[in-house]
Amino acid sequence: MSTSGTGASAVQSVDRAVTILEMVAARGELGITEIAEGLDVHKSTASRLVAALQHRHLLEQLSDRGKYALSFGIVRLAAATTGRLDMARLGQPVCQRLAEVLGETVNLAITDGEAGITVAQEFGTATIASQNWVGRRSPLHATAAGKVLLAWAPEDERRAVLRRRLAQYTDDTITEVAALRTELARVLDEGHARSFEELEVGMHAVAVPVFAADGSVASALSATGPVYRLPRRRARAIVADLREGAAELSAKLGHRGE
């Protein structure tokens, strides 16, 4: 049975829902009749779309007038985006300075559901060719930054990741839950994480936590380079440089230190 019609209908519904949010944002508040006229649809269709947006707390009904306005769900989504943008803006100078000092690519990553996402990146002076990871998601269990984010994550978030199958990317990827728990305990004890060819053969990385004002880990600052230029000994040696950069960024976030 063909599902092309169903797919087109779903896309149309999403488009109409987004249009409703844009209309309400522009006008401040709108009634069902106004929304239906703006979409050029029947009032029953407009009502169903508004009900879905209201259920997801993106719209709320103003009881005294029966019209609809944007709800707190919009603020929640905007806050998440603002947080990423602020982290990238504050972290970029730190990444740039470290990349110049270390000669390697420096990244800043935050948690994005059950993965990590790079919000800032600066290529090192010694880099011949590197991938642009900004905006890309990466597995928490197979990257240095991901291990930092996972080690300091709230227990329920950490359990959610550990309940899933741990994908294998190379022969050195940790895929056993018990082994990953041991690794995360080491990360907490030593204050930094390492990934030696666990995500990509021939690549090493080391990462440290960046703390928010409340003491939680806001992001992970990491340096990545090829094995021949960032061997295990050097990877451990540059932890001090990364910690200095992380302390600078943590201070910008309002963290007072230990």
TrEMBL record:
The keyword DNA-binding applies. Residues 73-255 form the IclR-ED domain. Residues 11-72 form the HTH iclR-type domain. InterPro entries: GAF-like_dom_sf, HTH_MetabolicPath_Reg, Tscrpt_reg_IclR_C, Tscrpt_reg_IclR_N, WH-like_DNA-bd_sf, WH_DNA-bd_sf. This is IclR family transcriptional regulator. SMART domains: HTH_ICLR. It comes from Actinomycetospora straminea. PROSITE patterns: HTH_ICLR, ICLR_ED. Gene3D superfamilies: 3.30.450.40, Winged helix-like DNA-binding domain superfamily/Winged helix DNA-binding domain. It comes from the Bacteria. Keywords: DNA-binding, Transcription, Transcription regulation.
